[in-house]
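Hi! If you just cloned this repository, the fastest way to understand the data is to look at a raw example. We've pasted two of them here, unedited. The first protein comes first, obviously.
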Amino acid sequence: MAELTAFLRGLFKKWQALILGGVVAVGLTMWQWFGSPPSRIWYGVLLLFTFLPAMYLTWRDEYRRANEAVSEVAELRNAARRASEQNKPAIWRPAAALQSHEDGAELKNELVLRDAKLFELVSVALLSPEGARLAEIQADAGSISTGFRVHITHADILKLWNRHYHSGSIQYSVRRGDAPYTGNIPFVAEEAMIKNTIWIRLIG
C-alpha cells in the first residue's frame, strides 16, 4: 500500500507540472486571449494527454531508482566478496612434481614433494583416469621432513598399464601442523626403451 501511495503522489506531481507549466499553460493562455475559451471537451482531452506522459515519467523515475538500488546492492556484495577473499588465509600446500630419470638399466618415476618448513607425509596412491584407487604407493607415511621423494614402482604402474590406461594421476596427502592437504598430479603414461627393456614413463 505504501508503494502505491508513493506512486500516486509522484504521478500527481508530474501531472500537475505538465498541466500548469510549459507549453500547455502558454497554449491555454494564448487561446483565451485570442479566441473563445476552450470547451470542457478540450479540457478533458488536455487532461488525458497530459496524464499519459505523467504516468510514463513517474514509471521512468521509479525504474531508474530501482536500477540504481540494485546496482548499489551488487557493488556492496562485490566489495564484501573482495574483502572476504583478501582476508581468507591462503591454503598451504607443498611444491609437488613427477620426475622420471634413468638409474642404470632402470627407469624410475618419483613423486617429489618439497616445502620450506617441516611437514608430514600421510599417503600416496595411484589413481585411474576415472579416479579409482589402483594402488597404495609404498611411502614413508608418518615421516616428517621438508622434502620427500616417493618411488612409484614399475609393478604399481603396471596395475594401470595392464588395464589399458595411458593416463591417470598420483594422489598425495600431507599435513603441516593442523593444516592437511590432498593434491592430485595428472600424468600421461608412455613406453620408454632403456637397455633393450620397455619401461613406462609418467609425464605430469
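Ok, and the second one:
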Amino acid sequence: MSVFSSVNKFFSLVKFAHTVFALPFAFIGFFLAHAQSGTPVDYTILLFILLCMVFARTTAMAFNRYLDRSIDAKNPRTIKREIPSGKISPQAALVFTLASALAFVVTAFFINALCFYLSPIALLVILGYSYTKRFTPLCHLVLGLGLSLAPIGAYLAIDPHFVIEPILFSIAVLFWVSGFDIIYSLQDIEFDKSQNLRSIPVMFGIKNSLIISALFHLITAVIIVYSGMILELGVLYWIGASVFILLLFYQHLIVRPSDLSRVNQAFATLNGMASVAFGIFVCVEILLNWI
C-alpha cells in the first residue's frame, strides 16, 4: 500500500475537506483581534491557528469514527466508512486520534500560555460531543459549541482578553452549526430510533426539526447583523453577511419534510460556500479599513 493511499484513507476518515466550515471564523477572530489591539499582523501565529484548527477537528472526527464504529457498521448509510469496512483498524484510528490531540496541545503551547491552558478544555468539548447522542437530543448544540470555539480561540491567540465581539461570532457559529447538523441528522432518523440514539429529529420529527433548524439559523442571521452594526463595519462586511444569510436560508428551501434528497447539498456545499464567502469579505473589510 502506498503512502499516498494510506494518507488519503485517513483524510477520508475525518472528512478533511469539512475543516472549511469553522476555519473562516477563526480567520475573522484573528484579524479582528489585531484590528482592535492595534498590533501588527503576525502570520506565524496565523499558521499556528490554522494548524490548531486542523488538529482539533481531526481529533474530534477521528475519535467520533472510532467511538461510533459499531453503530456505523449497522447503518446502511455509514457501513462503508473506513473503520466498518476494514480500510482502517480501530487501533490505528485511536492512535491517530491521540496523535492529533497531542499535536493540538503542542501547537497551542507555541501560541501563548492562555491558549495552552485552555486547550484541554477545548479537547474535552470536542471529544465529549461523540458521546452526547447516546443520552441527549442536544447533541447538535454540543457539536456547535465545539466549532464555536474557533473565533474566540483565534482572538485569544492575539489578545488574551475576553471581549464581546468574538463571543458574538462564536454564538453565531454555535447556532449555525447546530442548525445544519439537525438537517444532516434527518438522514438517520429511523435508524437512530431503532438504536435508541438521541437527536432533535428523533424527538420532534422531521417537520418540527426543520422549524427548529430554521429558528437556529434565524438567530445566527440576527447575530451576524448585530455584530456588523456594533463593529461599524463597511460595505464588504454587509456583502459577505448577505451572501452568508441567503445561502443559510436557501438550504431550507431545498430540504423539505417531503423531500430529503438534497440534504447533503445543504449540509456540505451550501454551508461551506457560505462560510468561505463570509470569511473572505469580512477579513478583507478588516484588512482594508482597520489594519
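That's it. A detail worth noticing about the second one: Residues 250 and 266 are 8 Å apart (CA to CA).
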